[in-house]
Amino acid sequence: MAPRTKILLTGATGYIGGSILNRFLARPDFQSSFDIRVLVRSPEKAPKFDALGFKSIVGSHTDEEVMVQAVSEVDIVVGLTDCDSIPAAELTIKGLKKHFEETGKQAFFIQTSGTGVYVQLTNGMYTTDVIYDDANPDQIETLAPTQPHRNVDLKILSAENEGFFKSCIVLPSLVYGVATGPLFDSGLSNPHSILIPLMCRVALDRRRAGMIGQGKNVWPNVDINEVADFYPILIEKIIQSPDTVPHGREGIYNLENDKHTSYDVAEAIGKALVALGYGDDSTPLTFTPEEEKKYFGAHVHLIGSDCRCIATRARSFGWDPKLTTADMLGGVQKEIEILIKTGKAELKHFVSGVDPGNIQVSSS
Ligand SMILES: NC(=O)c1ccc[n+]([C@@H]2O[C@H](COP(=O)([O-])OP(=O)(O)OC[C@H]3O[C@@H](n4cnc5c(N)ncnc54)[C@H](OP(=O)(O)O)[C@@H]3O)[C@@H](O)[C@H]2O)c1
């Protein structure tokens, strides 16, 4: 019998992490083919992951002893906590080095970054026409190191050049949909994404949907289940034929299947708000400078940013997403209903963990 592939997944209680674990739970060969360890911060949740067949490790991704040891023991690390955390990346790299020194083998590091690396700051006033293709590493390398998430990605890519591990950096675009399945039904993982729930909460707070500027900025999007589909495909490829897996500068994997303007999202939220009785006017209204500060703080430029890319590499592996912008917009009302029903509709500031980077507003 082939040895089980040892995987460490961080961010198990998260939206994307939980969705990927659900994919493994559904596999008949889950227990026989995989030894999946999960890093969780909550000691209360840890035994519940164990009961499902995972091996929990309690700790933070900044906890050096825990992270380095946990990483050093596995064949594949899947990073899903915070794509802006330099300490998390550094400790993972340290663990990967230990693995190489102890086994002589290069483990794989599947880091989850985001298509925020491609943003142009257009303040909702226009879209741009440079489309970043992940099969074109020369083009990706033109990105400034000050782009969001790029500092962490560059740290990983630079360490990979030392030869003791291989990296695949996955860049989901705007991920949408309320996640479902055992990890969410049991309350272990967070079922909500970042941007659409945020814009719904903001709209509920001001009783009107809104956008930065005219909402003409474009972003790619992808359904949460289709994001979760990709990781097992990549992991299988790593297991079956590791030498054929594009890695390092070639190993950038965008995930998108359609695109939308910020106005499209605001319009769908506006209609849902009125349909649910939380507003009188469905027409989106541009945020005032005071509202921009109140709701988005330092991240306001990202909310009004433009992001253009295509997912060539993931599709070349057979990843075949089907859902489109119409599905995303069609799910907005249901998401608002769930946020309200589950007591999660209160306004929260834009995810404080997201580093807005140091990018400059580009001119039109
Ligand atoms: N959702 C999107 O649209 C999207 C798109 C592109 C990229 N991404 C990126 O993908 C990553 C995961 O996103 P997500 O939507 O799944 O986020 P999420 O639901 O907020 O999940 C974040 C996960 O990271 C864990 N975590 C945070 N800080 C940690 C620490 N110090 N030590 C250990 N665990 C820690 C959280 O654990 P707790 O439960 O303990 O808080 C949670 O499990 C993020 O870097 C995000 O920026 C997301």
TrEMBL record:
One Pfam assignment: NmrA
GO molecular function, one term: aldehyde dehydrogenase (NAD+) activity
Family matches, as SUPFAM superfamilies: NAD(P)-binding Rossmann-fold domains
Cellular component GO terms held in the UniProt record: cytoplasm
Domain NmrA-like, first and last residues per copy: 5-81
PANTHER family, per database record: NAD(P)-BINDING DOMAIN-CONTAINING PROTEIN-RELATED, PROTEIN YEEZ
Protein name according to UniProt: NmrA-like domain-containing protein
